[in-house]
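re: the backbone from monday

yeah here it is again, tokenized this time
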């Protein structure tokens, strides 16, 4: 929703600016169940029919929640809470017309910002600094697998019961991780539509690291949701900080993992360069998904003045960042809503290909 509270310790400052953006980026899409369930939605949802909720698998719950998010017009107020006590509130409008998705998110506290999304194109306005940034998020692919099969995320779904959220009845589903490389999740899925009304991220002991929930929501909001979601904003007076993106592969750019990290599969890489930048500012970003969350690996060159510290770590809620100096003047920034040890696995297995 905004950039705040990321505690990256001294060193690697040139890379950490991207970590902050990614950490705050996760919060903006959480209520839309965009925790990288693109791994499922790219392949298309499958109707669940009359299947008993107690028998649904994790991927079946994810399909239902994703379909609800991308097929309904709704508007509401979203509250994000962290274990540290930090809180952020936003207003959300989401609309669908002719198969296209439109979304607008206004930050209601902290630094004033507005995010517009039209399918995979996202435009972020930071009103105080008068800057705007446009990015594409449609370059990612579904995890590989047999034709017609859904990627099976490494979680076991448990229906815990029913509760009310924002005045609506919801199924409470616990996504239990199958190993220590990822966190657990509790979802509150509206019983009639499947829309996620609340989600909690859980440490292994059950402590809630963060929670995002609708405090108020109007489903099937129709024209109101469409007006809000599609309302444009004048670019005059804003400095453009957009990036150009080009799809690529890690191997094409000379990088790879010595061995995979259990449960994560590669789902896309791209090179991005700020429009206003000069030569040598290209930045490689590669995504790895477990079907629910992603890890992003940023690889870029840095000037010698940023080499004072070999590695630094930081966090914002459940999201963590690891910044590490590589060989030949490269730096790695690994970011994801995963335990720090998972980022260390990625960092230690990243190699320069000959």
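seq for it, each position gets an aa:
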């Amino acid at each position: 929703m905004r950039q705040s509270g990321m505690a990256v310790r001294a060193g690697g400052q040139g890379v950490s600016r991207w970590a902050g953006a990614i950490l705050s980026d996760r919060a903006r899409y959480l209520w839309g169940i965009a925790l990288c369930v693109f791994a499922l939605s790219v392949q298309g949802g499958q109707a669940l029919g009359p299947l008993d909720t107690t028998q649904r698998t994790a991927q079946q719950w994810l399909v239902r929640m994703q379909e609800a998010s991308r097929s309904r017009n709704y508007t509401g107020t979203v509250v994000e809470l962290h274990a540290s006590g930090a809180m952020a509130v936003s207003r959300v409008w989401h609309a669908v017309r002719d198969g296209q998705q439109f979304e607008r998110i206004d930050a209601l506290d902290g630094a004033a910002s507005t995010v517009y999304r039209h399918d995979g194109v996202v435009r972020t306005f930071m009103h105080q600094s008068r800057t705007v940034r446009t990015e594409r998020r449609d370059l990612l692919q579904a995890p590989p697998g047999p034709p017609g099969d859904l990627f099976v995320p490494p979680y076991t779904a448990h229906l815990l019961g029913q509760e009310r959220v924002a005045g609506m009845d919801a199924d409470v589903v616990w996504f239990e991780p199958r190993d220590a490389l990822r966190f657990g999740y509790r979802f509150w899925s509206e019983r009639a539509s499947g829309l996620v009304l609340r989600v909690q991220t859980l440490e292994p002991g059950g402590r809630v690291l963060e929670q995002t929930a609708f405090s108020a929501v109007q489903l099937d909001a129709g024209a109101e949701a469409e007006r809000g979601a599609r309302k444009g904003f004048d670019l005059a007076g804003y400095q453009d900080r957009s990036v150009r993106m080009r799809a690529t592969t890690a191997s094409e750019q000379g990088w790879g993992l010595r061995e995979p990290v259990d449960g994560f599969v590669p789902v896309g890489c791209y090179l991005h360069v700020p429009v206003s930048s000069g030569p040598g500012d290209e930045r490689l970003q590669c995504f790895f998904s477990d079907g629910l969350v992603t890890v992003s690996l940023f690889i870029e060159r840095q000037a010698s003045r940023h080499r004072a510290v070999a590695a630094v770590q930081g966090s914002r809620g459940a999201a963590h960042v690891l910044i590490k100096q590589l060989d030949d003047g490269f730096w790695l920034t690994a970011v994801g809503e995963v335990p720090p040890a998972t980022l260390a696995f990625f960092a230690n297995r990243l190699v320069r290909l000959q």
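The domain at 242-352 is CATH 3.30.200.100 (Phosphorylase Kinase; domain 1). The chain has two domains: 31-230, 242-352.
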